Amino acid sequence: MAWTVLLWKAPNLAEMSTETLKRTPLYDLHVAHGGKMVPFAGYEMPVQFEGVKPEHLWTRESAGLFDVSHMGPCFLFLKEGLGQDGAHDKIAALMERLVPSNIAILKPGQGRLSVLLNEAGGILDDLIITRMPGEGLDGMLYIVVNGAVKAEDWAHIERELGDEAALQKADDRILMALQGPKAEAVLSEHFPEAADLKFMRCAYLQRGDEKIMLSRSGYTGEDGFELLLPNNPYGLGIVESLLADERVKPIGLGARDSLRLEAGLCLYGHDMDTTRDPVEADLGWVIQKSRRERADFPGAERILSAFKDGPAETRVGIQPLERAPAREGTEIELNGERVGVVTSGGFGPSVDRPIAMGYVRADLAIPGTQIDLMVRGKARPAEVCDLPFVQPNYKR
Amino acid sequence: MSTYFTEDHEWIAVDGDVGTVGITKYAAEQLGDVVFVEVPEAGVSFGKGDDMAVVESVKAASDVYAPVGGEVTEGNGDLADAPETVNEDPQGKGWFCKIKLSDKGELDGLMDAAAYQSFCEGL
C-alpha cells in the first residue's frame, strides 16, 4: 500500500529538499513522548503521538497540548511615541493599511482575527492581531501569522510599514496551545490570571525576569489558551509540568487538523489563498462596518463589489452522505457539471462521520443542497451544510 | 495454505489457486483508525502491483496494491459497515478480497512471515 500522508505535504517541496528542517524548542519533548515526526512548514513536527482519533477525542473531553512554535508570533510597535497618548491609534492606523479589520477599536488586551490582503483583495494570510495590554505598551500589537508563510508576511509588513513601525519576530520562543474543557483548571494552577480572561483576550505576565503572553484563543473550537513562553529552562519547565498533569496529553498535527475542521476553521493555503477574497472565503465578518464605509483597505473595490453583488463561489460546509471521506482537491459536481471543489476533508472523530469544506457556486451555497463528490471517479452523494460541525465552547 | 507478504505491507494467504488479500498488522497500526475501505468487486482483474483497494484512516487515504495478478472472486462486503475490523483483525476478519491467481510464479518474489518480520524491524 502507498504511504500517502496527504495532510502533511510540505508547503514548498523544492525548498524543503535543499534546506535543513528546523526544530522547535519542544522537539526533544515530542520525541520523548513518542511523537512521530514529519516535515511541516519547514520544521520537524509531531504528526501524532498515540493516534489521531484518541488525541482528538482527548482534546474535546480533557485538555490537549499543542506545539505551535513553527507559527509566526511577532510584535509590531511604533518606532517613536510608544506608550504615549494616541499611540494605539497610530499603530492601528498603520496596520489598517494592510488588513480590512477595525484595529483602532480594540481595547487593551483584546485580539481579533483578520486577513492580510494583497492589492487585488486576495488573502495573503489569516492572522490574529492583539492590542498589547497595559498603558505603557500602547503603540504595540502582538500578531501571530501562519508558519508556512511567515517569512513572506513579515517581509510584506516591514516593506509597507517599516518607516514608522518596527517588527520584532518571536518565533525563536515557545508557542504552545492548551485546548479543551479542562484547560482553564490546569493552566490556572500555573497562571491564576488564566481564569479571568475571556475569549480573544490576552494578558502580559511577568514572573521574575520571564515574560509570558497568555491569550484565550485556539484552533480547535474548544475553550483554551495560547502561550508565548521564553525558550529557556523556565519556559520548558512550564511545558513539562503541564504535560505531567494527568488531564493533559500532547497532541499532534493530525488531530489539530481534524479538530479545526470540525470547528469549521480555515487552514491557510488550503481553504483560502491569494486567489480568494474574504467574502468568498465566508470571512466577510472580519471586515467591520466602519471599514466597509471607509473602503480604505487593499482590494477594497473587488471586496466591496463582492459584498454588494455576491461572490461567484463561496466557502461552505459539506456533509458526505456515505462513509467515504472526500479529501482536499475532490471535485464537486451537480448533474455532471463541475460546480466546486473540496478544500479540506476527512473524518471527524467527534461527529463520527466524514466531513469536509470547500467552495461551491454561490447559488448552491444553501444548506441541504444536494451535490456529488467525485471520489476516485465515483459520484458520492453529499449535501451543503452549515459550519461548524461541532458547536464551539468558547468562554465569551 | 501459505501466507506471503509484500514490501508494501499487503499479505496474501494462498489456498490452491485462490489467495485472500489484506493489509498487515504493521500497516494497520501505522494507519491508525480506519474509517473507510473500498474493496474491489468480484470479476475485476488486476495485474501485480495495480491499485486494487483504498483504505482511509482519520489521517489519510492510502492505495492498496495487488500483491499478484488475477481476477477478484469476492470482496469483503462486511468492511463497508465495519471498517474498524481492519484495525481489530487485519490478518483475519479484516481481509479485503479473494483473488484467483493468474500466475502462481508471481508469489516467488514475495516474503514469508519471518522475512517480512525482519523487513519491518528494519524500517
Return the string of H and E elements of chain B.
EEEHEEEEEHEH
Number of strands of chain B: 9
Structural class of chain A: alpha+beta
How many structural domains in the coordinates of chain A?
3
> Mind describing the biggest β-sheet of chain B?
6 strands, antiparallel
CATH topological fold name of the largest domain in chain A: Gyrase A, domain 2
Rg calculated over all Cα atoms of chain B: 13 Å
**How far do the termini of chain A sit from each other?**
47 Å
Please state the oligomeric state of the protein chains shown: heterodimer
Main sheet of chain A?
6 strands, mixed
CATH class of chain B: Mainly Beta
- Which strands sit side by side, in order, in the main sheet of chain B? 1-2-3-9-8-5
**By CATH's scheme, which homologous superfamily of chain B applies?**
RNA polymerase II/Efflux pump adaptor protein, barrel-sandwich hybrid domain
- Mean pLDDT of chain A equals 94
In total, the number of strands of chain A is: 20
CATH topology of chain B: OB fold (Dihydrolipoamide Acetyltransferase, E2P)
User: What structural class is derived from the secondary structure elements of chain B?
Assistant: alpha+beta
Describe the protein's architecture and organization.
The complex is a heterodimer of chains A (396) and B (123). With 396 residues, chain A is an alpha+beta fold. Chain A has ten helices and 20 strands. In chain A, strands 11-12-13-10-4-14 form a six-stranded mixed beta sheet. A six-stranded antiparallel barrel of chain A has the order 15-18-17-16-19-20. Chain A has a five-stranded antiparallel beta sheet with strand order 6-7-8-5-9. In chain A, strand 12 (210-215) and strand 13 (224-229) form a beta hairpin. In chain A, helix 3 packs across helix 8 (253-262). Chain A is globular. Chain B has 123 residues and is of the alpha+beta class. Chain B has a single domain (2-118), classed as OB fold (Dihydrolipoamide Acetyltransferase, E2P) (Beta Barrel). Chain B contains three helices and nine strands, in the order E-E-E-H-E-E-E-E-E-H-E-H. A six-stranded antiparallel beta sheet of chain B has the order 1-2-3-9-8-5. Chain B has a three-stranded antiparallel beta sheet with strand order 4-6-7. The longest helix of chain B is centred in the last third of the chain and has 9 residues, at 113-121. Classes of the chains: A alpha+beta (396), B alpha+beta (123). Chains A and B meet through helix 3 of A and strand 4, strand 6 and strand 7 of B.
